[in-house]
Amino acid sequence: MSIKIQAANVHLIEVKLRTEFNDAEGAAAFALLREQGLSALKEVRTGRLYEVTGSLTANQAHQAGKDLLCDAVTQEFRLVPPSPAPMNGMNFWRVEVWLKPTVSDPVGATVAEAIAEGGLQRPTSARCGMLYLLNGRAVKAQVEKAVAKSLANPLIHRVVVTEAHP
Prior knowledge:
Elements: E1 9-17, H1 24-35, E2 41-54, H2 58-69, E3 75-80, E4 92-99, H3 106-117, E5 125-136, H4 140-150, E6 157-163
Antiparallel strand pairs: 1-2, 1-3, 2-5, 4-5, 4-6
């Protein structure tokens, strides 16, 4: 007798304001990062990240993003592919701020419950994070330091900084 164990899928859903809408959170983050020495920044846009783990298919994760996590009037969403973003000469940065795995995520628990109540496969877990898209020349170490001082609490947050494409 063999037991087949199905591997859990991990889907990263990104939700952000459409570009035609004013991003007040982005403007506040922009001011905080400029105060930390990132004077070449031109703009910061924000969004929400949802990491959903379980036996959901990509189509089901897409449906959860569309029907549950995104306001179709003011926001757009996408499933983020697992491949790394191309290098851009340090002009665009993607900053993800996540709660550490040891910190409870009540919003994530609510998202997992809502996905199940919406008739989709119940996720094993869901975690929520903040997304900051920085436009402006900077060095990765500068971005990491500025984010740690202004947008994240190193005691409870894990920060991922990568170059991104516009």
